[in-house]
Amino acid sequence: MKYAVVIMNLGGPDSLDSVKPFLFNLFADRAIINLPTPFRLLLAWLISTRRTKEAAEIYHSVGGKSPLLTNTLHQQNALELALKKLNPKKEVKVFVSMRYWHPMAEETARQVKDFDPDQIILLPLYPHFSTTTTLSSFDAWDAAATTISLHKPTRKVCCYPTLPGFIDQNIANINEAIQDINQNNMRILFSAHGLPQRVVNAGDPYAEQVQSTVVPIVVKLGLAPEQWEICYQSRVGPLKWLEPSTADAISRAAREKRGIVIVPISFVSEHSETLYELDQQYAELAEDLGAPFFRRALTVQDKPIFIKSLAALASDVIKQISEDDLFSNAEKCTNHCVKCPRLKKTSK
Fold first, then answer.
1. Residue partners of 210: CB distance under 8 A and separation at least 6
2. 321 by DSSP, 3-state: which?
3. Mean pLDDT in runs of 10 for the chain (348 residues)?
């Protein structure tokens, strides 16, 4: 049998000229701005026009484009090799689908259709489920598959916040970052991408799943309560977002004369949020505030521990006899997370 594993991520501009259309695609997504289409598209045009210059300067500072696609292609190659080792009697091919820039869902769906698999597995590179990321990518894929008449059995991995290799690779990256510092005087800030508070209040399980990733890491590292904190970065617009912000957490640690170790816990690849926001903006903030030191752990990328575990998860999906079309390695979310797709399925 033939299996197509589609890994999904946000995407990013591949040149400075593509910054504006990338931003437009981002803000035109109903999962990001939930307004009727004419108003949403107008607002997306206004925001992308206003933010293009600043965003282009950011991408210029990290090499003139987003490194996300390059990172993801490395993950694609590593994952395909690992899957072939785990499934030697099956034909498995890994594809890349990005949400807001190329290769986007319809482009990738056409490649998958040409491959003609017996089954498709959608594997977002978002460990934590959110309606703004995972569900948006699933919806875009479903629409693209309908457009090109790609009718194949499709299974979706909704999340994997407690994936052993995701936990262990983050621990390895943290240990590398802290190996030559005074660990008694450090505070590890687990920085996740932020979300508007109203999204979480509506039942999005993202924040709860971020915590489910961080807790086993804290336990395995033996951290005291004052040595760690979860915080949220990348706020956009005037709405109230998840708190504390990463900037506030850095300020608090600096006031307490603690060195800072940033762990980009919701990201699996390097991109502008890590290379610019963390490595440049927040490093400068920590220095200005007099923090004893500032370190940043790497993302898991295509490191063997993470990829091997991700391949095992995808292989479990391949081997499932059940006709269920939704998978996760995590416990079901608590009942207040009404947007969790697994809770929705069990409540029907």
1. 128, 161, 190, 192, 230, 265, 266
2. coil
3. 97 98 97 96 97 98 98 98 96 98 98 97 97 97 98 95 97 97 95 97 96 98 98 92 98 98 98 98 98 98 98 92 68 78 64
State the pLDDT at residue 348.
46
- Tokens read off for 78: 């590593």
> How many angstroms separate the first and last alpha carbons of the chain?
32
Q: State the alpha helices, DSSP H only, in the chain.
A: 19-27, 37-61, 68-86, 105-115, 134-147, 164-178, 197-201, 206-221, 246-255, 272, 283-288, 304-319, 341-347
Going by the DSSP 8-state scheme, the letter that residue 282 receives in this structure is: I
Give the separation between CA 252 and CA 260, rounded to whole angstroms. Answer: 10
pTM here is: 0.96
What 8-state DSSP symbol labels residue 264?
A: -
Nearest to 11 by CA among 269, 263, 195: 269
d(CA 171, CA 265): 11
CATH fold of 164-296, please?
Rossmann fold (3.40.50)
Supply the pLDDT for residue 344.
65
Distance between CA 144 and CA 5 in Å, rounded?
16
**Do residues 206 and 195 make contact, with C-beta atoms less than 8 angstroms apart?**
yes
**Per-residue confidence (pLDDT) for residue 237, from 0 to 100:** 83
Rg (CA), the chain: 20
The ranges assigned to domains in the chain are 164-296
